[in-house]
Design a protein that fits this description.
By secondary structure, the chain is α/β, with parallel strands linked by helices. It has one domain (3-271): Rossmann fold (3-Layer(aba) Sandwich). Helix content is 42%, strand content 21%. It is built from eight helices and eight strands, in the order H-H-E-E-E-H-E-H-E-H-E-H-E-H-E-H. It has helices at residues 3-17, 22-34, 86-96, 113-127, 137-149, 179-193, 217-229, 254-271, and strands at 45-51, 54-60, 65-72, 98-104, 131-135, 155-158, 205-213, 233-243. It has an eight-stranded mixed β-sheet, sandwiched between helices. Helix 1 packs antiparallel against helix 2 (22-34) and helix 4 (113-127) packs across helix 5 (137-149). The longest helix is centred in the last third of the chain and has 18 residues, at 254-271. The termini are far apart.
């Protein structure tokens, strides 16, 4: 599969969602993302449970090391679930050789951003994870959850919303993600996201995976430079020619797979 093939197929799925009621669109998105996922190892143990009202899917790799990694899915704060990101969470568990707990936080507009953060915090307190990982909207959530709790655990952030989301700071439109979509998502959370702490992360060990064609990448890289100047240890893994959302199809996209493996190796080194 080429990145153009992926973009065409994924965009067709997104376009189909445009006329659907929200519940139906969410189910469609789950299936769309899952359709790109590679196989999950048969030896991995997968269980579902509820932790203080938040549903969680746990992935335990065969002969995995001790410690749980908390994972929050993407989806623009309004869609996505443990189903849409099943392949990503399983791949993270396999790559790290550790248990991953993927959580189904509440979604907007039914819940506000602080309530989404509450769901992350409930699970974080109960599981005491050794790292927090998220992609896109989920990356912003784990970052703000860490800030709120002053949690110094390592952070793994995959194309997160970082920096100032303005017309001037964002990069150009890219397939699968337009500037107006980023600004709309930021407008939903901006007021409450700013209440969680200052612009610095709680952790001094951060690994970030970014893609070349994504309006989020310029403010992301600028913010990471600022963090480095404040003596945070920040690793950046850039997937050339890739797009926002390509993580779902990484097993068919060599550049995405290479950046993902680099990201997971670096994150794993912090845990070891």
């Amino acid at each position: 599969m080429t990145i153009d093939d992926f973009a065409e197929r994924f965009q067709a799925g997104l376009d189909a969602m445009a006329t659907m009621p929200l519940d139906q669109a969410r189910r469609h998105y789950d299936g769309l993302c899952a359709s790109f996922a590679g196989p999950v190892p048969e030896t991995m143990r997968i269980t579902n449970e509820v932790i203080d009202g938040v549903s969680v899917r746990r992935y335990r790799p065969h002969l995995g090391a001790e410690g749980v990694v908390l994972y929050a899915h993407g989806g623009g704060f309004t869609i996505g679930s443990v189903e849409s990101h099943h392949g990503v969470a399983a791949g993270l568990a396999q790559a790290l050789g550790r248990e991953v707990a993927s959580l189904n936080y509440r979604l907007m507009p039914e819940a506000c951003y602080l309530e989404l953060l509450d769901d992350v915090e409930v699970v974080r307190r109960r599981l005491a994870p050794i790292a927090l990982v998220g992609d896109s909207a989920g990356a912003r959530l784990v970052l703000d959850a860490a800030r709120r709790a002053a949690d110094d655990s390592p952070l793994g952030l995959v194309y997160p919303l970082l920096g100032t989301m303005t017309e001037a700071s964002l990069g150009p439109d890219a397939p699968l993600l337009r500037r107006q979509d980023v600004l709309a998502a930021w407008a939903m959370i901006a007021e409450q996201a700013r209440r969680t702490g200052d612009d610095l992360p709680a952790s001094r060990a951060i690994e970030c995976l970014a893609v070349e064609h994504d309006p989020l990448t310029p403010p992301l890289l600028a913010t990471l430079d600022e963090w480095r100047r404040c003596h945070h240890k920040v690793g950046v893994h850039l997937a050339d020619s890739m797009l926002h959302g390509a993580l779902h199809a990484r097993s068919s996209l060599p550049a995405m797979e290479a950046a993902w493996r680099s990201f997971c190796r670096a994150l794993g080194a912090h845990l070891d």
